[in-house]
Design brief:
Layout lengths: L2 H4 L6 E4 L8 E3 L9 E4 L12 H6 L4 E4 L10 E4 L3 H12 L8 E6 L4 H14 L4 E4 L3 E4 L2 E4 L7 H13 L4 E5 L2 H5 L8 E6 L7 H4 L2 H9 L5 E7 L3 H8 L5 E5 L6 E8 L4 E7 L2 E7 L4 H16 L4 H9 L9 E4 L5 E5 L4 H14 L4 E5 L8 H12 L3 E4 L9 H15 L2 E4 L3 H11 L5 E5 L6 E3 L4 E3 L2 H11 L1
Parallel strand pairs: 2-3, 3-4, 4-5, 6-10, 6-11, 7-10, 11-12, 12-13, 13-14, 18-22, 19-20, 19-22, 20-21
Antiparallel strand pairs: 1-5, 7-8, 8-9, 14-15, 15-16, 17-18, 23-24
The structure holds ligand UAG, adenosine-5'-triphosphate, 2,6-diaminopimelic acid (API) and magnesium ion.
The site of magnesium ion has 6 residues, from helix 4.
Family: Belongs to the MurCDEF family. MurE subfamily.
Main location: cytoplasm
Subcellular location: Cytoplasm
């Protein structure tokens, strides 16, 4: 495609060279540049793309989009923009000829429940015969392929590559998790969502957003590019969101009547039973996922499918047919009278929800193993410690993904919360050893909750990433007993 066509809808100034040249591809990382490419310089948090212009040109870049002027080799076109992340998103969409326009997009944002909600929507739309893709934390699912996802929401250019694949496979719907990082960093700029879903807003990611207000405003951006908003009005920030947007809203709730609402909720170890209400219609739902929070996820999924014209009968069947979501409330029977649950709770609210759910049916004790991720919001650590200790008989503090941080230092941040509650606890930094200890402590009727890493099959340490498949490790320990 010609550079001038790529730049057609982007405010820019040509500093040097011509835009009448053919572009073979786009890269935002100099290491991915090939002959004839357009290289987009991004000033990032760790590095500055402008420092790699020479590398990009050596690898064959013919044109550069930049924010800062500097010396450029001859023969290269230099284009200045005000915001290169925005330019990357718009240029990538233009280069691939707007593939997302062929797919109906449903975006899900909120602190917790995004992944689960996308799986529930997929289950409903699948049974209606649609070809449905998912982009999210666990993986990017396109057709029969599950592509590894390193981000919850991919970079804008990578998104356009994925949409192109969907176009080829004649995908009807793409259900995507839209993280607050992606909204702030313009990964989803230029996309148009059929509906946007807001699940909830609780403490997380303040390392990145700094204030709760900024975090809220990042989430709000999804509704600037959605046709309909699906909003949880039991959540304080959901109500605030509703007051701040001008598009049509479908509300959902459990505590009060909303457009779509749940009544008669009953939670057991394996199911959440409730009545789904919409206008005068009612359906009894047996959702094979325990937890009041999963009723909310089901309501979000139902409301978005209602907005797509799906019948309540199909919604009921789709919700009841779900096979579970990897690493979310996944139950492993120990064969010794106690159970082990793997769950992705990595925020205070997530941890509180899963532990309260377990407390609703546990016969014996709740033993919780958890840690906190390194290089992430430090303010949640003490609070998670307190939540775990309060809602468990025994809390075992261990490591999550320490990343560049010292695991002991992360644990030191968690401990004041645990100690405050004055209950039995252990500190075992090695996660495998921590799981072993919990399993050795397990007695008839106990539930051991292994929180934080869910579907992840690795652990990110300072200098390396090691294999860490929690499900496999738990089964191995149980088999060796
Ligand atoms: C804070 C954040 O989100 N950062 C993301 C951001 O990094 P950045 O723009 O700061 O990039 P950088 O590393 O400073 O480099 C700047 C530029 O120089 C380029 N570069 C760099 C080196 C080189 O040799 N050549 C070169 O061209 C880089 O490609 C980049 O374009 O853009 C990068 C490229 O897309 C991302 O990989 C990176 O994700 C980091 C690693 C990350 O951990 N992000 C997490 C926090 C995240 O995004 N999480 C959310 C939310 C999860 C949730 O739901 O809770 C997610 O959506 O996954
Ligand atoms: N609606 C909800 N409200 C509160 N907690 C929830 C909700 N749904 C799930 N959880 C808890 O949060 C954990 C993560 O759920 P899920 O993966 O669906 O959220 P997510 O928003 O996709 O998370 P991430 O930000 O990591 O992508 C679950 O394992 C569960 O403990
Ligand atoms: N999407 C979340 C996932 C956290 C999962 C937890 N295991 C951790 O590593 O902190 C994040 O990137 O903050
Ligand atoms: Mg997710």
């Amino acid at each position: 495609m010609k550079l001038k066509d790529i730049m057609m809808n982007i405010n820019h100034t040509i500093l040097k060279g011509t835009s009448d040249k053919e572009i073979e591809g786009i890269a935002y990382d100099s290491r991915a540049v090939k002959e004839g490419y357009l290289f987009v310089c991004i000033k990032g948090f760790k590095a500055d793309g402008h420092d790699f212009i020479n590398d990009a040109v050596k690898k064959g870049a013919k044109a550069i989009i930049l924010e800062k002027e500097g010396h450029l080799p001859d023969g290269v076109t230099a284009i200045k923009v005000g915001d290169s992340r925005m330019a990357l998103a718009l240029a990538s969409a233009a280069f691939f000829e707007h593939p997302s326009k062929n797919v109906k997009l449903i975006g899900v944002t909120g602190t917790n429940g995004k992944t689960t909600t996308t799986y529930l929507i997929k289950s409903i739309l699948d049974r209606c015969g649609y070809n449905v893709s998912i982009l999210g934390t666990i993986s990017n699912i396109i057709g029969n392929k599950a592509i590894d996802a390193s981000r919850t929401t991919p970079e804008s250019y990578d998104l356009q590559v994925l949409f192109s694949e969907m176009r080829q496979l004649k995908t009807h719907y793409c259900i995507m998790e839209v993280s607050s990082h992606s909204l702030e960093l313009k990964r989803v700029a230029g996309l148009s969502f059929n509906s946007g879903i807001f699940t909830n807003l609780t403490r997380d990611h303040l390392d990145f957003h700094e204030t709760f207000e900024n975090y809220f405003n990042a989430k709000l951006k999804l509704f600037k590019s959605s046709k309909t908003a699906i909003i949880n009005i039991d959540d304080e920030y959901g109500r605030k969101m509703k007051d701040n947007i001008e598009i049509p809203v479908i509300t959902y709730a459990e505590k009060e009547r909303a457009d779509v609402w749940a009544t008669d909720v009953e939670i057991t170890a394996n199911f959440s039973k409730f009545i789904l209400n919409y206008k005068e219609e009612k359906k009894e739902i047996m959702l094979p996922m325990p937890g009041r929070f999963n009723v909310y996820n089901a309501l979000a999924a139902a409301a978005s499918c209602i907005s797509e014209g799906i019948s309540l009968e199909d919604i009921k069947k789709g919700l009841e047919e779900i096979k579970g979501v990897p690493g979310r409330s996944e139950v492993i029977d120990s064969g010794r009278g106690f159970t082990v649950i793997i769950d992705y709770a990595h925020t205070p609210d997530g941890l509180e929800n899963i532990l309260n759910t377990v407390r609703e049916y546990v016969q014996g004790r709740v033993i919780t193993i958890f840690g906190c991720g390194g290089d992430r919001d430090k303010t949640k650590r003490t609070i998670m410690g307190e939540v775990a200790a309060k809602l468990s008989e025994i809390a075992i503090v261990t490591s999550d993904n320490p990343r560049s941080e010292d695991p002991e230092a992360i644990i030191k941040d968690i401990l004041p919360g645990v100690i405050k509650i004055n209950k039995e606890y252990f500190v075992i930094p090695d996660r495998k050893e921590a799981i072993k200890r919990a399993i050795n402590l397990g007695k008839e009727g106990d539930v051991i909750v292994v929180a934080g890493k869910g579907h992840e099959t690795y652990q990110v340490l300072k200098d390396k990433t090691i294999d860490f498949d929690e499900k496999q490790i738990i089964n191995e320990i149980l088999n060796q007993m």
